[in-house]
Amino acid sequence: MKPPYNVFDYYHDTGCCQHIAKSIYFENLSLAVVMINALWIAVDTDLNTEATILINSPLIFQVMENVFCTYFTGELAIRFVAFQEKRNAFKDAWFVFDLGLVTLMITETWVLTVIFLVVDLDLNSAGTGMSMLRLIKLVKLIRLSRMARLLRSVPELVIIVKGLRFASRSVAVFFMLWGMIVYIFAVLLRQLTDRTQLGATFFPGVLDAMNTLLLNGVFADSAVMINQMAGEEWWMWPLLVGFFALVSLTLMYMLVGVLVDVVGVVATSEKEGMAVSHIASQMRVELQKMGFKDDAQISLQDFQNIFMEAGVVKIVQEVGVDVVVLADMLDLTFEQFAKGGTSIRFPDLIDAVLGMRGTNHATVKDCKEQIRITKTIIKDCFEEFSKEVLKEMGNMRGDKRNSGGGGDDSSDSEVEQMLE
User: What is the CATH T-level fold of the domain 7-153, as seen in this structure?
Assistant: First the structure.
């Protein structure tokens, strides 16, 4: 329900740097450079094998490394200058992440180059130095972590990552099941092939048997193993085929039954979250136009006025709310979220809209709420009816007294007691 975090809110409102930093073209260009840099690391790894540091590399590699370092440094500088308060830059996770990568890149590309030029070391003869330089060269691989930006640019990747995290327990259970199956068959085959050439070749021990079954049953083509063992002993064929079939079936259930289901659940949850965020953002804009703040107290009259605005009506219709039904139940809906009070807040307003969607599934809570609403309506109707009856009786007593006929007070009191 809170306003979503947006780093642009902490940028200056005017200025060249903030204009560039907020530009979608600048964001897309940076993403393209990240992808090119990731591909260039593969080229550098395969072709740049004559030196361990940049100054001894061919000219093309020196140029490209300096181009990448200059661009990423400039990009980070533009984003830093765009911040209105510079301390907010170090509260932004993406800025801190990029700052660490750019610092490593500057150290490798410029700082180490200057140091080696000044010291003038013989890199080819430095034994310990060569090991350190190889370690420094591995720092280039850290640049691949820049591809994490794709998670920010492609929401579907976030769903997949969250799905894998959500499925980690189920996958761990399947690995435990694999381990149990492998262990049982390893012990069985170890005992059945004991003191045979077949056992000495494939199952000399329980651990060796588990290793053989795991590698050949889960991670490799097992036809050669099955044919070779079945050629020695025919009864090994159905036994091993049963084992590999069981493992394959387990693997299939894990991939199809678990991951697909988990990704579907996470996708549904993410879509619901995006829908809530979308309607909350639109409603917040409409309420701000009407003069309400995020922490404002909304009374019953305000609640009714809000749903009379054309912009609000359009928003609730887009999410599948029947505006006519909502209008008929405004008083009861307000009473539900006010909980005996006289006002509600913005999150309650959003909950009220989301709870009236036609696609919502009915639950036991909804049935109980329906019963409560029915009782409330009956009670209100009976109270109004009682007031009308008592009012008419009072009018009748007044008419009788005015006509001089008097009134039967005992019968009137009996009717009042009956109504009570």
Answer: Four Helix Bundle (Hemerythrin (Met), subunit A) (1.20.120)
pLDDT digit string, tens, across residues 160-193: 677 667 767 776 787 788 788 889 988 888 888 8
Annotation: CATH topology of 166-269: Helix Hairpins (1.10.287)
Question: What is the percentage of the chain residues whose pLDDT exceeds 90?
Answer: 12
216-225 residue pLDDT tens: 766 666 667 7
User: How far is the CA of 405 from the CAs of 48, 277, 398, 399, 415, in angstroms?
Assistant: 119, 71, 10, 9, 20
* DSSP bridge pairs for 357: 321
Structure tokens at 10: 């902490």
User: Counting runs of H as helices and runs of E as strands, what totals does the chain give?
Assistant: 21, 2
C-alpha 234/C-alpha 232 separation (Å) is 7
Q: Which helix (H) or strand (E) holds 20?
A: helix 16-22
Rounded (5°) CA angle 200-204-210: 130
Chain Cα centroid distance, residue 63: 40
- The tokens of 357 are what? 């969607």
**Residue type at position 194:** D
Q: Any idea where the domains of the chain sit in the sequence?
A: 7-153, 166-269, 290-360, 378-419
Neighbours of 204 (CB within 10 A): 14
411 pLDDT band (50/70/90 cuts)? low
> pTM to 2 decimals?
0.56
Residue in 309, 383, 384, 303 with CA at minimum distance from that of residue 341: 303
> Which residue intervals of 204-363 are DSSP H helices?
206-218, 223-232, 236-252, 260-289, 300-306, 310-318, 323-328, 330-338, 346-355
Q: Is 88 exposed, middle or buried, given 0-12, 13-18 or 19+ CB atoms closer than 10 A? A: middle
- The residue written with tokens 């019953």 in the block is 300
